[in-house]
Amino acid sequence: MFKSKVTLAVTGASGSGYFLRLLKSLIDVDVQIYLLLSDAAKIVLKTEENEAWPEDVDELNFFLADKYQSKEKQVIALTAKDWFSPVASGSSAPDKMIICPCSCGTMASLAQGLSNNLIERSADVILKERGQLIIMPRETPFSTVHLRNMLTLSELGVTVMPLAPGFYHQPKTIADLHDFMTARVMDHLKISHNIGKRWCE
Ligand SMILES: Cc1cc2nc3c(=O)[nH]c(=O)nc-3n(C[C@H](O)[C@H](O)[C@H](O)COP(=O)(O)O)c2cc1C
After folding, report:
1. E-assigned strand segments in the chain
2. Rounded to the nearest whole angstrom, what is the distance from the C-alpha of residue 125 to the centroid of ligand 1?
3. Whose CA is nearest to atom 1 of ligand 1?
4. Is residue 195 part of a domain?
5. Looking at ligand 1, which residue's alpha carbon is closest to its atom 22?
């Protein structure tokens, strides 16, 4: 029914606008999305974008379908303890996952395989099943611990894609920066799109 499916997790690092752009772009190209938000992600979303999303997951699904005019069951929001959801098991999870933005806290948990909530468990499933995991960390400066965790994850096959857009396309707006990173993620997921210009275009 959908072209493909991905797990999209949002954690409490700065950069909610990148997540909102990515979510909309995936919906627009007919991808089904299992959506996971940490408690800290909801706080950052409210702080940065002034968006207060419903706490109740059924209400959130209704809210998202209305906001993005998505198809029925295209966006499926899950709670941190939905252990019986498809993303929690290698037998049913999508083979692609993006964490945008990725907090340094979640990055540390992933590097240690903690699986203490559904975001960490979903990522752990992707790692054990040798799927595609893209994390988009944001912090500055990065500490040695952060850098070590990134190296550990990179060695495990994770794509570490910091929220660090280029400027050679001469962005005029914040939306241009969001587009830049969204286009790079879509490229890595091998999902065709028409967002922004490519190098040399
Ligand atoms: C407004 C705000 C901005 C934050 N920005 C960052 C950030 O850019 N990077 C980061 O690693 N943590 C950031 N934090 C801290 C994380 O939200 C915090 O470590 C949290 O425990 C992460 O939990 P999570 O990984 O479960 O989302 C921020 C917190 C707030 C409230």
Report:
1. 4-10, 31-37, 75-78, 96-102, 132-137, 159-160
2. 23
3. 44
4. no
5. 12
Q: Is the pLDDT of residue 1 over 90?
A: no
Section 78-104 average pLDDT: 97
Q: Is residue 200, in this structure, part of any structural domain at all?
A: no
Q: What pLDDT band is residue 10 in, cutting at 50, 70 and 90?
A: very high
Residue ranges making up the domain that contains 153 = 4-189
Q: What is the Cα–Cα distance from 135 to 112, expressed in whole angstroms?
A: 15
Angle between helices 104-112 and 144-155 (to 10 degrees): 50
Residue 48's CATH number: 3.40.50.1950
- Centre of ligand 1 to C-alpha 62, Å, is 27
State the burial class of residue 91 (Cβ atoms within 10 Å of its Cβ: 0-12, 13-18, 19+): exposed
| Exposed/middle/buried for residue 163 (C-beta within 10 Å: 0-12, 13-18, 19+) | buried
- The predicted pLDDT at position 196 comes to 81
Assess contact for 5 and 95: CB atoms under 8 A.
Answer: no
